[in-house]
Design brief:
This protein is 68% helix and 0% strand. By secondary structure, it is mainly α.
Amino acid sequence: MPSLEIVRHELDLEVASQERRGSGLDTKAGLVLVAAGVFVGIVPSRDLTALEVAAQLLALLAGGGALWAAFPRISASIEPRGLRDRYLTADPDHSKRRILDTRIHLFERDERRLRQKLQRMRFVVAHALRGRVGAGHSGYPAVMGTEADMTTKTPAAHASVSRWTPLRLR
């Protein structure tokens, strides 16, 4: 079967691409989780407005959603011992076809999981953005203080506070 090697090579390329996309989504989910933790962690303990509490709750939900989006991990693999035990004495062409068919099945399953992860990540980012938009009016996070506190400090005091931007997803 001369085309078997061509199909296997293309599958190897697709699996590598799938693993990169899965790792990228996991990284983005981790960044959302860290951002949510920072957002929740910088809340002052004094008089919070209802909007600040709502923004903090949305950040908590975004952090939990980021954990939800990170799982399950995408990884298509075949158990080596079972492969050896089952196909060691089998016809090589039959073994190659069965292994290729199994890898294609695993790829398709992981591709569905990857799409689900992407949908969950989009959901999380959209809700995290809602929390950020609802957090303040001045461009600075409202949890850093009240609007009156912001106007009494110099702009340089807020230079380290950057605007949150949504992650680019594929």
